[in-house]
Specification:
single chain, 135 residues, 2 domains, two-stranded antiparallel sheet, 5 helices
């Protein structure tokens, strides 16, 4: 999976992005929007569809779009509508992805960035940092 900014919602724009990022033989699962129809004609990808007006999981193939729908839902929860505007979306998506990949270790990365400091103890109520300073 990858995230990118889509300049417009035309079939041509989406197909260009798919051609740039998807490798030959990739399985592309999408809803039944007609703009995705050319994917099957390209012959480079396996194009599977889910008709959301009927179901959320294709009963014949078992394919679904739940992962990407959940990811987009998480992005919308993690970024307010003001943070999803064109001028700042790239930086905010990078930060959101970084936080998701490093969940549970954010403080470690923060304190590793402090020159000469290291964490000596962490518990649920206290964080002790040793900066190597003696008095």
């Amino acid at each position: 999976m990858f995230l990118t900014i889509v300049p417009d919602l035309s079939s041509a724009a989406l197909l260009k992005i798919i051609e740039e990022h998807a490798t030959d033989g990739s399985i592309i699962v999408a809803n039944c929007w007609k703009g995705y129809n050319p994917l099957s004609k390209l012959g480079l990808y396996f194009h599977e569809t889910v008709n959301h007006s009927e179901c959320f999981k294709n009963p014949d193939s078992g394919f679904h779009t739940n992962h990407i729908e959940g990811t987009w839902s998480g992005i919308k929860i993690g970024l307010s509508s003001r943070q999803r505007i064109k001028e700042v979306i790239t930086e905010n998506l990078v930060m959101l992805i970084w936080r998701r990949k490093n969940v549970g270790t954010l403080w470690k990365f923060f304190f590793d960035a402090i020159p000469g400091g290291y964490i000596t103890s962490i518990d649920s109520e206290m964080l002790i940092i040793n900066f190597g300073i003696s008095f």
